[in-house]
Write a structure and sequence with these properties.
Elements (H helix, E strand, L loop, with lengths): L1 H11 L2 E5 L10 E5 L6 H9 L1 H4 L3 E5 L6 H9 L3 E2 L7 H12 L3 E4 L17 H11 L5 E9 L9 E6 L3 E2 L5 H28 L2
Parallel strand pairs: 1-7, 2-5, 2-6, 3-4, 3-5
Antiparallel strand pairs: 6-7, 6-8
């Protein structure tokens, strides 16, 4: 926490804006669904929603590819765990389901990987399926769309960053069509939150 938030973020960014903090639950199972524009996203989320803000850590659900090599070794020690977001199996979703049942806060990048700014959001079904499975077990999960923006893409030293939390969403247990509809609504909410974050950067100029 000291290395990432007190050193890395403060040394790299000259300003970090956090919008919509009142939308962030401080208790109960939460799935944070942020846009993914940079590796810095993974440090900004604990800054805006981690232990110092909510009293609990952000647990990251990442792709299988990200858990390989030296990066995987580091991510494992940071509390990340892998799931195949394109084709999530019940076995791989068991652990995040247990975390949600215990009231933890999970981060899932629904796009699956870093995308260029202004690209249309195309979400993998992993988040919607996970939330549906939790709902089917009687666990009411709050899904929180998050938009993240930087002065440049990718961000440069001395840039500003902005993170916007949107209105919470809830998904009920259901089938594939319900998951697709939820993912479409989530993509729109994430896009709107990112536009809000970009607007905040423009106003702060």
């Amino acid at each position: 926490m000291v290395a990432s938030q007190d050193l890395a973020l403060k040394l790299f960014f000259r300003q970090i804006l956090v919008l919509g903090g009142d939308h962030l639950p401080h208790a109960g199972p939460v799935l944070l669904a942020p846009t993914h524009r940079s590796r810095w996203d993974a440090l900004l989320l604990p800054h805006a929603a981690g232990r110092r803000i909510t009293g609990r850590d952000c647990r990251f659900m990442v792709t299988v590819d990200e858990m390989r090599g030296l990066q995987g070794w580091l991510l494992d020690r940071l509390g990340c765990f892998p799931v195949h977001q394109g084709r999530p199996s019940m076995a791989s979703l068991r652990y995040p389901l247990d975390l949600l049942s215990a009231g933890h806060q999970l981060v899932v990048f629904p796009e699956g990987q870093i995308q260029r700014p202004n690209a249309p959001l195309q979400l993998h079904p992993g988040l919607a399926r996970l939330a549906q499975l939790a709902a089917g077990q009687g666990v009411a999960v709050t899904v929180l769309p998050v938009g993240i923006a930087y002065d440049h893409g990718p961000p440069r030293w001395g840039d500003r960053a902005a993170l916007a939390f949107a209105q919470p969403m809830v998904i009920r247990a259901g089938g594939r069509s319900a998951a697709i509809a939820f993912s479409d609504a989530l993509a729109q909410a994430m896009q709107a939150a990112e536009i809000q974050a970009l607007g905040a950067l423009e106003q702060a100029t």
